[in-house]
Structure formats: C-alpha cells, structure tokens
Amino acid sequence: MNMAELKGHPVSIVEMGPRDGLQNEKMQLSTSVKAGLVDRLAASGLQRIETGSFVSPRWIPQMADSAEVFAGITRLPGVRYSALTPNMQGFDRAVQAGVDEVAVFAAASELFSQKNINCSIKESIRRFTDVCAAANAAGIPVRGYVSCAMGCPYQGDVPAADVAMAVRELMALGCYEVSIGDTIGTGTPQHVHDVLSRCLQEASADKLAMHFHDTYGQALANIMSGLQLGLSTIDASVAGLGGCPYAQGASGNVATEDVIFMLHGLGMDTGVDLSRLIDTSHWICAQLERHNQSRVALAGLPVARGA
Ligand code: HMG
Ligand code: MG
C-alpha cells in the first residue's frame, strides 16, 4: 500500500498509557489518578484502552491495584477496557474485575521470557492455553503479544522465524490479534518490514498490531513501514510513558499524540480529539512529575492545522 492509498483507511489505536505507560513508574500513583487517566483517555475518543495488569504485585508493584482501577473507572459505551493476564490466577482476577478483554504475553527470545515471566517460551504457551480456553468459554476476547520481535536486551538479535513461530502459536490458541513488540525500540524500517512480512505468512494484516517502543526514535518510521504492509492497529502510550521493567533502558511506547498527528496528516480517521489528548498528556505528566516525551504535546497543535 502506498502513502496515498492510506487516506481514508480505517486505523485502530490501542492505548497503552495506563498499563505499559505506568508499570515502570517509580512514583506510586493513587488509584483515583489511574482511573482518572483511563477516563480522560476514553473521553478523548480512544476506544481500546489497556487499563491494567493482573500480574504478580511483587513483580510489578504499580499494577497491584488494577482491580480497584477497574472499579473506579466510568465506562463509556463502545470502549474496550483490557488487561494483561500471565496465568490463570491473573485471568480469574481480571474476570472478577470485569475486564472486556485480556492479553497474554509471550516472547520471541528465551532469555527475555525467563526474565519477564519466569518461565520458558514453551511453558508460557502452556499457561496461555489454559487462559485462552477459559477466556473462550467465558466469551472474553484474548489478545497476544510477542516481545523482543526486533531484538532482545539479553540475547541480541532475534530471528524473524522465532517471531513468526510465536505468532503462529498465539493464533493457534485463539488470540484474535497478535501485537508485535519492539520492546527495546531497536528496529528500523527495513528490519520491521522484514519481520512483519514473515509474520504475515502466519496471520493476515488485520490480525497483527504494531507495538513499538521509541527508545531510538524509530517508532513513527517503523509504523509507516507496517502501514504500508497493510497493518492498521497501532499500540501507543500517552506522553510516550513507559517501558518494561525487564528491559533496562528501554523507553516508552511511541507517544499516542505523535501517532495521531501523523495519521491525521495521512488523512486517516482515528476518532481521537487530539487537543483533548494533549491536555491529558500534560495532566498525567504533572501527576508523575515527569518530562513529557511527546513531541506533539510539547509543541502544541499548529494554528492552521487544527485537531
Ligand atoms: P512466579 O514467581 O514464577 O509465579 O511469577 P508463581 O506461580 O511461582 O507464584 C509466585 C507468587 O506470585 C505466589 O504468591 C502467587 O500467588 C503469585 P506467594 O504464594 O509467593 O505469596 N502470583 C500472582 N499474584 C497475582 N496475580 C497473578 C499471580 N501469579 C502468581 N497473576 C509471574 C510468574 C508470571 C506471575 C511473574 O513473573 C509476573 O507477574 N510477571 C509479570 C511481568 C510483567 O508484568 N512484565 C511487564 C509486562 S510485559 C511487557 O511490558 C511487554 C509488552 O508491553 C510487549 C513489549 O513491549 O514487548 C506486553
Ligand atoms: Mg511494551
């Protein structure tokens, strides 16, 4: 697909701020601020929001109150509020909290799997089999992630075939979509093109999502690479918040504001009110006493362009 063909093409944004964005923050935020963030994101027009994570509170303390966050949000119709669930214990907690969707997270790198979820890739798939079967029985959609798709902080290079293998296994478990994670942001557009092309042999473009951390400033270019291959689901985090505690030095997902600005420039409809999103971006950075990573939020909307 060339750039002109993208105009008018539907695109789906999955907001990561409340989960990937906050999970690595040292400052413990109150539950009401977390719920307030989710509500503000929904009010700006975002319809898919990863709201929390039902993982071990010892591993990720910031996510310990995800059930309370779910209880504290004001649900907007049409918005899907999802959460990570690494095992059955997490899944049961998530169901009790009333999630609309869950996500299981695998890796294409054995070492990362061990560091992040304390088990091998094979064992993680076995755990996810149980989660997917239970979710299927309960009518809850499951999203899959593949971490380290463009490189691993422990292993280094990751073969595209290993990423594709993980995609195949997650699809076989019944994931309706698999998000391809550049966990440490080292991917560049040709590399991303090659890895995604290999993944497209396992799943169609409408079943793959792009989850790019922006550590090396490549994420927007990498998203263009994926859009041109026909992918149209993009994970992003307000203010570029976040990072993975088990990938030292990796920065947050690409900022949602920056992605929306680019997509609107391409003539794609996101349904997001960028001006409201920028307000939320400044608000959450003030709560966290943190520098805003979004170039668009820092610059503000240009007068002539509007939202
Ligand atoms: P483990 O220690 O091997 O688990 O952790 P265990 O089964 O041996 O249980 C140990 C203790 O944890 C027990 O408690 C369990 O009850 C408890 P104890 O008896 O000692 O008091 N436990 C739980 N508690 C609450 N909820 C649960 C749960 N499971 C066990 N679900 C485990 C294994 C998977 C739980 C752990 O490694 C973990 O929580 N890891 C999560 C790490 C994480 O959240 N990483 C960040 C998210 S992934 C990411 O950011 C990448 C992504 O964005 C894509 C990308 O960018 O690449 C998705
Ligand atoms: Mg991530």
Automatic annotation (TrEMBL):
The chain positions of domain Pyruvate carboxyltransferase read 11-278
From the UniProt record, list the reaction(s) this protein catalyses.
(3S)-3-hydroxy-3-methylglutaryl-CoA = acetoacetate + acetyl-CoA
Annotated GO molecular function terms are: hydroxymethylglutaryl-CoA lyase activity; metal ion binding
Write down the CDD domains for this protein, in alphabetical order: DRE_TIM_HMGL
Write the Enzyme Commission number(s) for this entry.
Answer: 4.1.3.4
UniProt entry keywords in alphabetical sequence? Lyase, Metal-binding
Q: In which pathway does it act?
A: Metabolic intermediate metabolism; (S)-3-hydroxy-3-methylglutaryl-CoA degradation; acetoacetate from (S)-3-hydroxy-3-methylglutaryl-CoA: step 1/1
User: InterPro entries, alphabetically?
Assistant: Aldolase_TIM, HMG_CoA_lyase_AS, HMGL, PYR_CT
Keyword Lyase in the entry? The reply is yes
Please indicate if the UniProt record lists Lyase as a keyword.
Answer: yes
List, in alphabetical order, the GO biological process terms annotated in this UniProt record: ketone body biosynthetic process; L-leucine catabolic process
User: PANTHER family attached here?
Assistant: HYDROXYMETHYLGLUTARYL-COA LYASE (PTHR42738:SF7)
Indicate the family of this protein.
Belongs to the HMG-CoA lyase family.
The UniProt entry, under NCBIfam families, shows: PRK05692.1
| The name this protein goes by in its record | hydroxymethylglutaryl-CoA lyase
Query: Which species is this record about?
Result: marine sediment metagenome
